[in-house]
Amino acid sequence: xxxxxxxxxxxxxxxxxxxxxxxxxxxxxxxxxxxxxxxxxxxxxxxxxxxxxxxxxxxxxxxxxxxxxxxxxxxxxxxxxxxxxxxxxxxxxxxxxxxxxxxxxxxxxxxxxxxxxxxxxxxxxxxxxxxxxxxxxxxxxxxxxxxxxxxxxxxxxxxxxxxxxxxxxxxxxxxxxxxxxxxxxxxxxxxxxxxxxxxxxxxxxxxxxxxxxxxxxxxxxxxxxxxxxxxxxxxxxxxxxxxxxxxxxxxxxxxxxxxxxxxxxxxxxxxxxxxxxxxxxxxxxxxxxxxxxxxxxxxxxxxxxxxxxxxxxxxxxxxxxxxxxxxxxxxxxxxxxxxxxxxxxxxxxxxxxxxxxxxxxxxxxxxxxxxxx
Length: 373
Known about the structure:
- It is a single chain.
- This protein is of the alpha+beta class.
- The chain has a domain of 221 residues: FAD/NAD(P)-binding domain (3-Layer(bba) Sandwich).
- It has 10 helices and 20 strands.
- The chain has an 8-stranded mixed β-sheet with strand order 6-5-14-15-16-13-17-20, with helices on both faces.
- Helix 2 runs parallel beside helix 8, helix 8 runs antiparallel to helix 9 and helix 9 runs antiparallel to helix 10.
- The mean pLDDT is 95.
């Protein structure tokens, strides 16, 4: 019998949904408290590498993800004028049965996971989050933001980089900006765009794009972070930055017309020291760790958290600190390596180093991500 009979997952994003699916399928009663009013996802697109796809396959949603997204097995490096400099085979970190990468629209991934949550029998309450948590030793007493209360064997804070759960359990760690900002636009996929292509140089640190479906893609431009209040005319600014790039960017730039399809955010990072729990309340996903998307490992690490925690919870006869220590032993150092490598890549852009070993870093991370956590 699992050590957990019922659980509250605060946050219905990637980590929270994955954990809810795995626990509910095993017979655990799972409630999700999601602050948003409905199933939604900010941003335009997402890049899912093989180790993320491996977990999605274990969740039973791989076929739906494959049908909704766009798979590819290489990365292109281009000059600012669009000239192809190199085509690099990408590591299949999920194993030989999965592609190296799938690009897809974030709302479609959110919808697939939400359907799987319902199919597993977990219940989602929208428009609420945790407001107070009291660990009573063998259970956690919860008050939600709508005034309702409940008692659970386990509470999981999967509520993102600005987690409400984190300060409730006395973990005062705040995200830190890296000094870079990213413009993303969801747009039409030009003919010939069959994978992610990256440009290092030109008016931005990075100019890239990722196909997300038969006729869609998201494109992004990374520059020095600007105060959010000075963003102003998003269309004009993104088009101006895109003027410095040729090739597919010529078509992409012409499609940058709708401010509602443009998203601007800062790169931020966060890493909670071990342990990520206080009693029977534990953090996962971006609530515990977050990094700039320079390695495209954010969603993958969230999914891995959910898979490992579910495995340990379902195998344990009782829920005690040894379960959470085992979780830390399998997750903390791996996540720390991802955060540090992502920050190193960002720093090499902000502060160029002539002998920066970019290929070596990428090879080490690919090898690490190929290993199961």
